[in-house]
Queue: 4 jobs
Job 1
Amino acid sequence: MRTFKVLSALLTYPDETLIQAVPEFASVLETEGLVPDAERYALDHLIGEIGATDVYDLQERYGQLFDRSKTLALYLFEHVHGESRDRGQAMVDLRGMYEKAGLVIETNELPDYLPLFLEFLSVRPVEEARALLADTAHILAALAERLGRRQSPYKAVFDALVAVADETPRRDIVDELLKNPDPDPMDLKALDAAWEEEEVRFGPGAQGQGACGQESLIAKLRHARRAVNPARPTVQ
């Protein structure tokens, strides 16, 4: 489904290539109809804004959101394991899932980078893609709420993903995610402190366990919540 490619592209670092591709996005979303109408309005607003805004302004806004704020990190396992060793194994498992499906990562991006995950979903059968996306619904919902507090139009992407997943996130897990400190991206001292924190944990469990102590890849993703020169997903 090209819809996943569009949503992936919207979450990558904006440049002239992205802006030039914007006219295609609305057409893809309209043709496939995967995103419900209720979420399409806000998504179309974001697409229009990207197409009409100076690229340097777009890059500054993107950096303040997704590069400075740990709580808005676009790496799925960042929100499960932090920098613990278990994150490495989760990365291996996720990369293995990609390779088994015939997707070879040709960039230096980490496997749990959300735009890359969405690229993977774009080449899977739609029902399988929905099921895998549903496993991340809690983190997507938490990210949407944090972006909403910042009045960011990027909230539309995460609302659309939750809607496409057709999975109602568990409120208790979302609330646990939202308990983590969410410093102002302009408060450099607070940001430094946030990036020095250890593994994020949701509920009881020993150090090194996944959320709620579950070990399978799907369980880790279910309770989950960028890099230099990220790959630019393309709509084909």
Job 2
Amino acid sequence: MRTGGPGRALPWPAWIVEALTASGGSATPLQVSRHVWAHRRAELEESGDLLYVWQLELREAAARMVASGLLSTVDDAWVVADDAAARTLTARPSGWDADDVAVAVAAYVSLLRDRDEGRPLRHREALAQVGERTGRPVSAVESLFANVSAVVQEHGVEPVAAYAPRSNVPRGVRPAVREALSP
């Protein structure tokens, strides 16, 4: 599997299931590709050389899913084998990995800079951007932003008012904030 940037695997199976779900449970490879492009274009464009071969990677991922019994083919369309397979394919780990934390911290620090420089804060855009890049719901991003607020406050920086500090800081947030705040 190729990566979307250094060390970051693109979640092909989840994207395939997302497209199939949006299409009512069944879609041709072309329909799946159109959906992925429409909804994941930014991630694909950031993936470097993968931009030129992403449809091949998508088809290879689908072939692996068919071979493992997670997908089946019916009349040239892909279909998720069953509900258990769909849950397996779309499950996200409960914790935030280092790449996802870095994306969230960068967006939060950008909000801090906007505030400090007198620019309007674009909370919704920041939440949506982090959600899109990490595959997390907005509510999860808001929770992580609250954790980042706690760590920012530990560094003597006033946190973004919209995200009241929460002390249950996940692993990896403190080093990411420390690095982001370093001059």
Job 3
Amino acid sequence: MPYELGAFPWLGVLVAAVASFALGGVWFAVLFAKPYARALGRENNPAEKPAAIFLVGPFVCGLVVATTAAIVMPLLHIDSAQGAAALGALVGLGYLGSTALNVAINPNMPRPLLYALVNVPYFFLSSIAIHVILVLLR
């Protein structure tokens, strides 16, 4: 492991996870709320308060992504904001974005391409933010 005991950047991981969660809240509830609802086939459903899993789940996932990035970045000798942004873009598009597209293209998704168009850019930007925050708060 690239960290000595107690040297893991937990503050950076927490800040990165909160940033990813906040971006998701703005992205899906404000900026793209209508297209996201349409992609899910719920554009005519009344707004309702989300269950706890829909809030806790994305935060935990952001925490896992940030923790993973904090482990991988030193192994790849990523120590600049530019390098972190490049890795974040690669991970955001290559892993997270392609997974979001894979989730979208199933028979239960009413509008798969719209779903991907809303989700992939979020994961791309969120991943860049996570990686850059980690290198800035190391």
Job 4
Amino acid sequence: MPVLPARRRGPLVPLILAVSVLYAVAAAPAAPAAAADEPDWTAAPVAGATGSARPAFYFAGAPGAVLDDRLTLDNPSDRERTLTLRGADAQDTADGGFAVRPAGATTGGGAGAGSWISFGPAATVRIPARTRAVVPFTVTLPPSALPGDHPAAVVAAEDGGRETGVRIHLRVGGPALSALTVEDVSVRGRGARAEVGYTLVNRGNLPLAPGLSLRAEGVFGAVPGRTHRALPVELLPGQRVRLSEPWPGAPLLDDVDLTLTVTAPGAAPASARASVRLVPWGAAGWAGAVLLALGGGVLAALPRVRGRRAGRAPDHELTGATT
């Protein structure tokens, strides 16, 4: 029996093995990247008298009072950090957190409680590696400060743009007032795409969590509106916001009177009205074009009729007289 020579491995086999190894390396899950955007330093209120941690700062005072506290900055990293400190206006969010406004931004009513916070000469702090710094600051309540709650925060920022904030709960003493108005109601779109625009204004000195309902009355009776629902916004004292509400029940053709009612805990309901004439302009345009064309045809035919009449022999006029 003839002996067949053994098959030699050509260059294709090592190439296949190399590609398989490279594919396995590429397909392997990458190691989780370090959270580069998270600062490796922390900011928090100085611990309480018993050594317990405080989640936020709490202040209360009358207009004109000067309040003070201290901020702890902890740098556990192996290099020095330079931090800039500032006060900022803040706003509670719908999920129970809080949002800090950027530097220079203010509330809808002008400068907020962030402008009352001062770090003095300690606004820029250099913290050596593995060191903790304690920085004092003051909150000066203006004599004209409105009674009520004023959300704020102290913010520590690094040169690279990374920053962290510590919440401040600040209450100015005096009579509390909850007052809300709704203004400038308007409608855009029609049918299922209609939206009602409006402006809410907090006329009091307490933050408000408003809710809204919409009632509509057409020529032939009630039109579907919107039942009462909570709005995902917190309205700070003096703040004015422009919002819009979907109105999927808007008719295509009707003359509607809208009543927008806004409520908030502790505040009297506020209403605003608007009248809107809803017309499907596409259909109205076609109907107008047809009517215009018909009218033009009639007018064009009139001279021809008159001309034919002018060319005929005159009719004898019957007077009733005998000859």
